[in-house]
Please model this.
Amino acid sequence: MQESTLLLAYLCPAYERNSEINRLLSAPEVNIDKLLCARLLAEQGQLAEWCRAYEQLKSALHAVETLPPQEGDEEWQRLVRQETEVATHALSAAKQRARALLLLRKDDRALEMTLSAQDTALALRMGEAYRRYLARVGVQATLSPTARGALLQANAGHGRLSGEVGTHKWSTSGAVCVQLVPKEESAAFALDYRDVRIDIFCSSGKGGQNVNKVETAVRVTHLPTGTVVTCQDERSQRANKLRALAVLEQRLREAWEQTKHNAERQTAISVRTQAQTTVRYYDEANAEVRDVRLSGVYSLRQWEKGEMDALVDGWTLLQHQTV
Model:
């Protein structure tokens, strides 16, 4: 029960905030402010699934805590065992939903989902299911047809749908290749001068009396990487310092760009490999969905309505089994 109590504590702030929004929306001074009402309703939409998870977990925990004792005749014990099994299963499902929500909150990046298929209608059919799912959790998305299938874009939801990347095979309609790329602004390199140590010393070698007697040489060290640049060719300390910092910045920028290029190449290879892997089968004749990574059979009708929490949660928890 300790885990259930802890999960309730994590979900409680969202539940309390939702209650506060309800009180605000009932106030006359708030009702006349249309912009504030719209903002509060949008926030309430984002809190909806958290409130449902809180209520389900609280109800399931109460059901387990108030189970009747198994003392009595055989028929009574049988009924109690059945009730215990149902209550325990409900509590387990509620805890799984709460755990998944807490994990999904860690990755709320914007997304761009491409659904590639020979049948554009099938790609749009899948994209509409994902759009409905995102709408259920308070994320607005736009779906549009493309020359190769469909494109789904949203300002959040990357973490939720990361498990959808791969090939989705339909029993009668073909296959759809789903790829998911977060919409992130490309970072620019910037040298943080707080990470740089500057040492001054006397120049050595040719250059006249002033060069050898006055501390004009400069050594700059980038502490995080240990990169060192020394400059003593100029006649003044300031000129050596500026030149050394310029060389240091150039070297670090080149190393940063190479690292970025390698990471992008590795990501592209990983995404391409993942996209070629079959992750799910859709049996249209029996209206069933089977995920190769998860056990169980899921309803295709519910999936198309955007009710895919079990699949999303299952994949999320599978990826964070050590959490």
Observations:
- The chain has a mean pLDDT of 84.
- Residues 117 and 176 are 5 Å apart (CA to CA).
- DSSP finds ten helices and eleven strands in the chain.
- The two ends are 18 Å apart (CA to CA).
